[in-house]
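With this grant's support, we have paired protein sequences with backbone structure tokens. One protein thus recorded is set out beneath this paragraph:

_____
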Amino acid sequence: MSTSKVRTVCGSSARTDLCGGRSERSSLPRLTDKAKPLSRRITALAAVALVLALCGSVGAQQTGKIPRIRYASGAPGSLLFDAFRQGLRDRGYVEGQNLLIEHRDAGGRLDLMPNLVNELVQQKVDIFVASNNVVIRAAQKATQTIPIIMLQSSLDPVSSGYVDTLAHPGGNITGLTTLGRDLSAKRIELLKEILPRISQLAILWDADGPGPKMAFTEYQAAAHRLKLNLQSFEVRGPNPDFQNVFQAIKKSRADTLIIVGNPLLTQHRKQVLELATKNRLPTMNEDIEYVQAGGLLSYAAERVALARRAATYVDKILKGAKPANLPVEQPTKFELVINLKTAKQIGLTIPPNVLARADKVIK
């Protein structure tokens, strides 16, 4: 029964017992005078309840809206996305019931990201979640009105122009930063602790990525301070020739390899790490996923915890908060992760003092 039919039944001059009036063509048995008022009241109450139920149902269909979240990343991978979804579940959100989430990735093709982001923001979307700097930048150009949550920016959000200040973002972007670039020197120091005699470092990075470009500059400065030589090995997408790259790294006589993680290298990390192990190269990585895939060690913010934390921004914005007023959060915990299985494969012994400081050890 539609809303208009309900109004006709209850608003016409030809009233029926359903609306509390006297039926002119009732086929019901004739009631006694005493029974009529009670019967009419019961019938009227039942009719009112039915009408309210029908109108409430129609109203719910018309006004009910399930928030839509769009989550974009540069490469396939479920670890951080799953952590983000878990954070939402912890706050009472159930996909398909009170929240809709769509996850899209660019398959490691950073050049495809602007079109992907434009496509997503043109859809009916309440919040956009950007997993890395390329996505953040593309989303910033695509919309100044849809709230954008940085899942984890490895660049400084202020100097990158994403926000006015960490405490008062001032626009439609807020979220979390990993301080990834501030850890470059610490990572080289850890390599020097493990391999005291190293002198030649190699660094593998995507020359098309804004984050890796800054990373290379900072690693270069840190290596210079420690009187180490850093040799750059650049790759570009979509399908780098890693075989030739590793032949060049081998010829350089590098003692160790720093891998700057980004969507392109994440897409090919299994091949990269297999080649590093084959060439007996210790690798320093920028997140735990690389170590889990066969890298030697990583030192970074606890990215899974940050991804879960990003769900609090979704919750606050859906409850009425503005991104401009939600401070950007920085990590408070950093993890040292070591893969002893990989160390054994490349014939390396991790010093006990370094191993004792590890937050996680993969055996």
Notes: The first strand starts at residue 68 and ends at 73. The longest helix spans residues 35-63.
